[in-house]
Amino acid sequence: MKSKTSFIPQEGEAHPSRCPDNSAFKQQKLPAWKPQLTIATVLSSFFLIGAFCLSVGVCLILSTNSVREIQIDYSDKCSDCSKLRENSSNWNKECHCFVNFTLNEDILGDVFMYYGLQNFYQNHRRYVISRSDAQLLGRNVNIQKSYCAPFTTYQNGTPMAPCGAIANSMFNDTIHLFYNLNSSVIQVPLLKTGNSWWTDKNVKFRNPKSYNLSSAFAGTARPPYWQKPVYLLDEEDERNNGYVNDDFIIWMRVSAFATFRNLYRRVRRIRQFADGLPAGNYTFHISYSILSCYPRHSLTIR
Amino acid sequence: MSLFGLKFGKKKLKEEERQLQANNRDFNLQFEYANNSIKTSKYNFFTFLPLNLFEQFQRIANAYFLFLLILQLIPQISSLAWFTTVVPLVLVLAVSGVKDAIDDFNRHKSDKHVNNRPVQVLINGMLKDEKWMNIQVGDIIKLENNNFVTADLLLLSSSEPHSLTYIETAELDGETNLKVKQALTVTAELGEDLQKLTEFNGEVKCEAPNNKLDKFTGTLTLRGEKYALDNEKMLLRGCTIRNTEWCFGLVIYAGPDTKLMQNSGKTTFKRTSIDRLMNVLVLVIFAFLALMCLILAIGNGIWEYDKGYYFQVYLPWAEGVNSASYSGFLMFWSYVIILNTVVPISLYVSVEIIRLGNSFYIDWDRKMYYLLNNTPAQARTTTLNEELGQIKYIFSDKTGTLTQNIMCFNKCSINGKAYGDVYDMSGQRIEINENTEKVDFSYNHLADPKFAFYDHSLVEAVKLSDVPTHRFFRLLSLCHTVMPEEKKEGNLVYQAQSPDEGALVTAARNFGFVFRARTPETITVVEMGETKIYKLLAILDFNNVRKRMSVIVRSPEGDLTLYCKGADTILYELLHSSCDSLKEETTEHLNEFAGEGLRTLVVAYKNLDEGYFQDWIRRHHEASTALEGREDKLSELYEEIEKDLLLLGATAIEDKLQDGVPQTIETLAKANIKIWVLTGDKQETAMNIGYSCNLLNDDMEDVFIIEGSTSDDVLNELRNARKKMKPDSFLDSDEINIQFEKSSKPPKIIPDEQANGVYGLVITGHSLAYALEGNLELELVRTACMCKVVICCRVTPLQKAQVVELVKKYKKAVTLAIGDGANDVSMIKTAHIGVGISGQEGMQAVLSSDFSFAQFRYLQRLLLVHGRWSYIRMCKFLKYFFYKNFAFTLVHFWYGFFSGFSAQTVYDEWFITLYNLVYTSLPVLGMSLFDQDVDDRWSMLFPQLYVPGQQNLYFNKTVFVKCMLQGIYSSLILFFIPYGAMYNTIRSDGKAIADYQSFALMAQTCLLIVVSVQIGLDTSYWTVVNQFFIWGSLSVYFAITFTMYSDGMYLIFTASFPFVGTARNTLSQPNVWLAMFLSITLCVLPVVGFRFLKAQLKPTPTDKVLLKIKEAKKRPPPPSPKRRLRRTSTRRSGYAFSHQHGFGALIMSGRNMRPKSPFATTGTFSPNSDKYKHKGLY
Prior knowledge:
Strand content of chain A: 15-25%
Distance between the termini of chain A: 101 Å
Largest sheet of chain A: 5 strands, antiparallel
Largest sheet of chain B: 9 strands, mixed
Structural class of chain A: alpha+beta
Structural class of chain B: alpha+beta
Number of strands of chain A: 12
Strand content of chain B: 15-25%
Order of helices and strands of chain A: EHEHEEEHHHEEEHHHEEEE
Helix content of chain A: 10-25%
Distance between the termini of chain B: 58 Å
Shape of chain A: extended
Radius of gyration of chain A: 32 Å
Oligomer: heterodimer
Number of domains of chain A: 1
Strand order of the largest sheet of chain A: 2-12-5-9-8
């Protein structure tokens, strides 16, 4: 008779025990917190969250109501200019238009001026990548390797500075704001710097190093749609010229959606405007640019 | 193996007939028969890489990722960098490649071990040691005692008289009794004469290799004469030679052609049902993806036509794109790349890791470690864990799995007095355990030290020379067909045809009636120290009709006695009327024994009249030489003399169950698992075990026995059984019948049917063969699956596999097969999950199993604890994983409508790369490695918690759709809340914040927090590791984000990290955080509310059990259940006997007697001289 289970190993070193360790981890006995959905926890969390949302909501509504905002769509008001541009031979003719509006109340505090575009697909995948960050850092790089095409070089091989579709399509209407006070026209002083993120201004964008800006950009050409080269973006302020120009930086931070607003100018709080914009009649003076042909655009003051 | 066989099958035409000549390799080589090497490995050094890669890319997922990679390399459509796919893909391929390599290396090792076993081969007249693999068909080899049989051999000659050879076939069919094979007389003459053997040039013609273990036909042509060959002359590979010093055999089938290998079934790659479901789901997701991409592509076409056309001033179309529709076409593929993150490759990696981790828990479990043979449980396949939580059918072997295969003489009733139980002072019965005092047999130096008995009163009775007791044991020592073997003085080994008989003779031996030796005419018994030689006059052998056996002996004193033992039902009819009162008492004891699941025999005797006996023996001689109707005449004579017997008592043998088997079976039954016992053993034994381990019991309405021997009989029996269980299943209105009617071809899945009570079914292998054929298959499945318990007896290894296959085919259920021997291999391989009982002699079952452990009772822990946890963890993992990736990916879809369908991603490219790999992988892994809804104790106490797994409730298509909907909902929130919060928004300092990078950061932060909160909700068991993983992942996200968006990183890797400053500028804004809070609230609160309300208003049965547990937890934990299963069965046993004809004829013919045993008196026919020799010993 054969007994199948009578096999018992010899005791001792020859057969080290194969018994598993008795650790909490291996025996799945780790101490643990076992939360459960009880009536008390569920209801109290519901009420707490509800109360929080309600109070935040009330605060938000109150603070939003105190914001004064004026938005003016000037695509139609400058329709003459856009008609002019439709004939491409007129692309470099200057065109101006005027937009009047009235403030019924003072806008107190800091006043910001935004330009807004509608249906301008800054978030298109090929648009978003059409830039060379290394070039914008002032490095001497071969932009052929970037995604700038077709805005990389001219046919004669001169590279564009800055390259890419984003830079090329930069918003370059020039807008001035005038305050009509008792038939005298006062230009509202506007700040064109300090509008962008600190990191963008100081880290992400740098001009190429050279003794002056125009030599730094020697050997490059402006993007096709620009009227002047990059080193002439702001001739008055060295620190706002070239790649570090605030308007350029803001444009280069592409928007998440096709309808967006970018900060254009801030009102400098001096003289009459120390407290903000007083009520009254104002005029925008817009020098219309090539960009404006297709999307609708607006100006916002708040 | 199958691979090997296949290769050979292809190479040559299908073998019709095998032809070979002994000692003629040249002749045999022309047929290109396989040699004796076996190959289970798949690769070699050079083929590994191409073959393995080829196999890996056959998996849909891998091929898909390769396709994606190729897409990403095309610049026009590459919307994501190539490294997002290549890194994980290489990782996955490498890991599975290494695993396959290790597995195959182990297979090479085991093949090598088997192939290099030595065996003696006759070559050029010399015996040479050769390796197994070099054996060819037609070789003559020599095997010695206890050797494994090398190949399928034709037995030529052996050391034993009449060239008998004893073999053990446990590895082959699970039967542990010895079997006898006998060579042809013409070859037996060869003996061990090497000269003659070398000259032997017989030609064998036989059937082609097949898997029928019990059938062989062929002819041997020797010197122009033909001899028929049958299975009785074959030694099959897998058997072991026993009790035979040497034997010679001619190799007929070798290596892969042997019946063992042909029986081993196909090695199939096992996949879990979740795997299969996942494949389906992945396809569904692909379809869904394709639909989304199509929508977006069409959107892009329209957009390019309508708006993009004008926008070309600022953004000319890409090179080569000349129309809106072509742009749309490209965009389709770009979106395929972006949206593929719904099924990221990390899904597959994580699933493997989870299974691996849960497998380790099985290896580590101390509660599945068996101290006695130092065997821990082992998860040999690490890819099937969650399937353990879904088992619906268990197919179990009997011998060695349910039972220990140890027969114990446990109790007896002698002359109306029962022995075997132990009572304490107060008369209470004591539970017998290891500490109970054993009876001291030291008065008998021939006693077997392994024999244990606890009732001292029986020894007292023997010592007091109580006449019935002595007669009882004398009977046990005389009435049997056991062969003794005494290699060393006093060291007796009994070779019994059935272990029961061995147990009875061993019991008699220990009580002082030592059966020592036998010759064809005598039996030597040492009775209480005194050697007595009985003359054996006749053996009235056992057969299945008689169910009894008798011997007629003449004692040294000259008395003629007939001793008889047999099944109670039969023997009671033959008793003398004077024992009626004793009969009643004994019946009571028999009921008691049977109630405990013991196998009983009744023993009786009768003193014979000299004159009558002489007449009878003359007629017996005439009958046994009669040419016609010998059998009938003999049985008539037997019946004539076996009557008016005097009852002596009854024996009760325990077929020792493994520890805890009845409890395990009870628990598993509560978990709604159906248990089928498939055994090679005979019907009575199988049923008896069924009763003793509580599979069958008297509470059952009925136990059907299917034993028809024609197809029609079997059909009728099955139909009758079904009619009784569910009469309306024959009506036309029955659902399944309607289903049959409707479709012309047989249905694929048969739904479960409810019987009107608890039934059992017993089917014999013979009937099973019919039932597994053609149209009876369906009948069998319908009937058998309605029964709670099914027992199949006398089944072959292949039938075991067929039964499993049958259930797999027609039932949508997960099957598990458990066994310990080579005969279980095919069923272990066939079932969804194969479990091997380890720590025993044969290793084949373990080697082909998926899980192995030492004791059957560990099965309940494996299923109810490990299986259940693994299943729940895997389901939770999949639910969460699909959710999180839907929420993650679909945001891109919504964004498509706002970004000109340009395949612009919402998130930073790095976030997309790291999301699945770093940010969200660990918390969900932590959950799926540590989560427990209830701990192990409760899952064992409430087996009904197992049921949802069987019904596949936690992860199925509905659940998947729910996950998907939740994911879509979350993605809507996660897109539109940031959208609303960002649209035309400015910071409090007037600067812009609605830029793309801020939006991306906000959306991805929202998403990450939402999915982290969600995993927190799903985790019900927060260990330190979970806390660490969840909080750690969130902090790592912020740390990595701030690092990647830092000035330094930008200045060094300008092109890679364009998001410089975004984190600082955006995350410092309160409105961003408020928006995040809003989206988190909107994503999570509905889920919490829904779950809470569902558990309150519409609790599932599981919820109710969990509630019960929660309440029970408040009370002190109950003591672990230690109730003894009290059996109330009054059923009378399967009698303890072998299923074959006994050895009786063999013994009486003296053919198996050995003339040269040194101590025994056998073979020399001068009993008197021996008697004196032996007396001198004491």
